[in-house]
Write a structure and sequence with these properties.
Elements (H helix, E strand, L loop, with lengths): L4 E6 L3 E6 L8 E6 L4 E6 L2 H7 L31 H10 L16 H15 L4 H17 L1 H5 L2 H15 L4 H11 L3
Antiparallel strand pairs: 1-2, 2-3, 3-4
Helix pairs in contact: 2-3, 3-4, 3-6, 4-7, 6-7
Protein name: Knr4/Smi1-like domain-containing protein
InterPro entries: Knr4/Smi1-like_dom (IPR018958), Knr4/Smi1-like_sf (IPR037883)
Length: 186
């Protein structure tokens, strides 16, 4: 990310930010996609950006069930599913380019979840900023998939809290944004 930005919203890979690179007041608003290395100006000022926001009140969404938009669970027979051994290998390598794949590990029981969270915790102790972003992003996805399974069990809730605590020590603003979203679940 360039210097002199104030992040408004993002997920670790994409961001909307106030851009102070060329000014000290009335910054433009930009969209950044870190993976695609894109920088797109959304508006010349924050006021203009706000004026472009609206609530979609069209009837196009009538009859659509919110359940249709939930994150899909990955089953063991899914072609993208990974095995326990593959998940462990990915977490042991701690490669920021592969860590997103741990979300393709099919969790079928609380024991599967505890195992994965324990491995994420171990990986977190070796994380740098880049791997921290990927681990936090993957953890957020896993929580979204299995929120009730995590928070119905004290042990898994504690593992999530420990992972958050470890990743907070990175003192990375991008990681911290993801961790704040995870804390909203806690």
């Amino acid at each position: 990310m360039p210097d002199n930005l104030i992040l408004i919203h993002g997920d670790g890979h994409t961001w909307v930010a106030l851009d102070y690179r060329d000014t000290k007041e009335n910054p433009s608003v930009h969209y950044f996609d870190l993976e695609l290395e894109e920088d797109f100006k959304l508006a010349d000022s924050f006021g203009e950006f706000l004026s472009k926001l609206y609530t979609d009140e069209s009837d196009d969404l009538e009859g659509i069930d919110a359940e249709d938009f939930k994150i899909a669970y990955i089953s063991p027979d899914d072609p993208e599913a990974i095995t326990r051994e593959e998940a462990e290998s990915i977490l042991n390598k701690n490669s920021d380019s592969e860590l997103h794949k741990i979300t393709y590990y099919p969790i079928q029981s609380n024991e599967d979840l505890k195992w994965l969270l324990s491995k994420i915790k171990d990986s977190s102790t070796r994380a740098d900023s880049d791997t921290g972003i990927e681990l936090a992003s993957a953890l957020e996805s896993i929580i979204s998939y299995h929120e009730s399974l995590i928070f119905d069990h004290e042990e898994t809730t504690l593992l999530v809290q420990e992972i958050v605590s470890i990743l907070e020590k990175l003192n990375d603003s991008d990681v911290d944004i993801l961790l704040s979203q995870i804390k909203d679940f806690l």
